[in-house]
Amino acid sequence: MLLIRCPYCGERPEVEFHCGGEAHIARPDTPAEMTDADWASFLYYRTNPKGLHAERWVHNHGCGRWFNALRDTVTDAFVQTYEMGAPRPDAGNASSTATKAA
Amino acid sequence: MRRFSISALLKEAANGHQGWERQWRAPEPKKEYDVVIVGGGGHGLATAYYLATVHGITNVAVIEKGWIGGGNTGRNTTIIRSNYLFDESAALYNHAVNLWEGLSQELNYNVMFSQRGVLMLAHNHHDVISFKRHVYANRLNGVDNEWLTPEECKEYCPPLSISKDIRYPVLGGALQRRGGTARHDAVAWGYARGADARGVDIIQNCEVTGLQRHHDGSVKAVETTKGVIGTKRVGVVAAGHTGVVMSRFGLRMPVESVPLQALVSEPVKPVFPCVVMSNAVHAYISQSDKGELVIGAGTDQYVSYSQQGGIQIINHTLDAICELFPQFTRMRMLRSWGGIVDVTPDRSPILGKTPIPGLFVNCGWGTGGFKATPGSGHVFAHTLATGEPHKINEPFSLDRFRTGYLIDEAAAAAVAH
Prior knowledge:
Chain A: GO terms for molecular function: sarcosine oxidase activity. The structure holds 2 protein chains of 2 kinds. Chain A has helices at about 35-45, 95-100; strands at about 5, 10-15, 20, 50-60, 65-70, 80-85.
């Protein structure tokens, strides 16, 4: 079982949390202008990386708050958790790190 | 290929079994193939086999990063059934069951297909209604499925507890008698042997690292750790690593890869006559011919390539097993493992074309790909040979996520596929 550091409560066991999938997928501002392919990409297509992955988690059996986490999908280790709305911490070198881990 | 037969067996028995040859070659890749298949699991090898036997295309390479059958083919719980709700799925999975029935004879390789029946348990009113709907829908599609009362379930599977005092009592079950199990490794080996004998090159320990394309965008060659291999058509059959391979080709996919766990007990004498599944309490169980209880657990909730999952997932399944089969409470578990399964948003596979001309994909089987191995290989071979999908896999296009024509088996089959 994973040990997850909630930014608000500290380290808690995984069973207190629910994973909300890939983070930083913004709902489109102009839905009327979206093509079907755009909607498919927004709704269904995912990065699914082997390496560092940014995803949403909710501490639903704790404080109930959402946060983002940077996790390595090869080792399952959490690298960092951060608040909703904050940019991805490794945004500058995300792709290179992910490729290296893969 | 030297055929297995009683006379061959007797001859070798007299010879101390020294005369058996290797079952497939270990060739170096040629400069060019008509078709390159990425992924040497059951589905990839079956595809190669049917390309050779049905379509006469033998200049084919199967490129495998590790060893054949070493991924999810060797990690699943070997259950075979076709009692899917929707017409499209029923056609696909029943196509596979039809092929399973003649597979050992066709391959001249014993895949130990055993039609011992798959019993799916209902534990609440919703289950009962839903499963009866499945039974009727299946029958309309020519798929055998029947409703059993709790007493009939008990008669079919004596270890089952139908006590009314357990947390989730058994209210009945849907039984597919044509369902059962097969020896997973033998499926990969049988297809590999059959394909190799017809000229297919199986190239192991060779990873695909990239794709080269012509000016018009179509496939020109694949880049591998053993050099560049020219080809006009590529079929990616990489299961949990489909996303990784496709990202190297510059494509995103509507799949996420998650761990799915299974475990086996110490081997015991024959004690369990069929396959029992319960979606509601999440457990499925059968007994291998070696005597181990083979138990399937659920998926973890996050993307992972670790090939291991959380212990709480296994505990949850074992709780359910112990409640349904109290005699197993003192069994010791021998080992557990995880496989990485590629799950699509509608829990149905993707079999067909991609945006790159000449590149085809067979993925998204999620938690239930093993049962489909022969059918999947058969229709994907048709797709690779003709460039167009077979009518059975036509609905399972990648494009359905754009058109909205989803085959939403997720709601119908819950978690256990």
